[in-house]
Amino acid sequence: MPITKTLSPLDWTTDALCAQTGPDFFFPEPGTSVRDAKRLCGACTGRAACLEYALANDERFGVWGGLSEQERLALRRARSQA
After folding, report:
1. What DSSP line would sit under the chain, residue for residue?
2. For residue 35, how far is the Cα from the chain centroid?
3. Which residues of 37-72 are buried (b: 16+ CB within 10 A; e: fewer)?
4. 16-41, pLDDT tens digit by residue?
5. Among residues 61, 32, 22, 28, which one has the least CA distance to residue 73?
6. Nearest to 65 by CA among 29, 12, 14
7. Is the backbone of residue 60 left (phi > 0), alpha (psi -120 to 50) or beta?
8. Theoretical Cys-Cys bridge with 54: which of 24, 26, 58, 64, CB 3.0 to 4.6 Å?
9. Is the pLDDT of residue 4 over 80?
10. CA-CA-CA-CA torsion for 34, 38, 40, 46, nearest 10 degrees?
11. 58-66: which pairs have CB atoms within 8 A and are 24 or more residues apart?
């Protein structure tokens, strides 16, 4: 009988590029650029799972899944209207 692995909702964090970078990079001071954080997210294989986690857990601060707070809010609103 084959062994199946149950995936945890946070399995994507193991290989995530953000795990190799400090939190200040993804949670910058207000008014500073998130461009570099979003660029790093764009190269991450866990990006989609990270974004879904942030949306499911109502993460309101920082860059998650390549989106800023405002972009996630807009996505949440668009999804709720669909």
Report:
1. ----PPPPTTGGGGT-GGGGS-HHHHSPPTTS--HHHHHHHHT-TTHHHHHHHHHHTT--SS-BTTB-HHHHHHHHHHHHH-
2. 14
3. bbebbeebebbebbbebbbeeebeebbbbbbbeebb
4. 998 888 888 899 888 889 999 999 99
5. 61
6. 12
7. alpha
8. 64
9. no
10. 130
11. 61/27, 62/23, 62/26, 62/27, 63/26, 63/27, 63/34, 63/37, 63/38, 64/26, 65/41, 66/38, 66/41, 66/42
67 - beta bridge partners?
A: 64
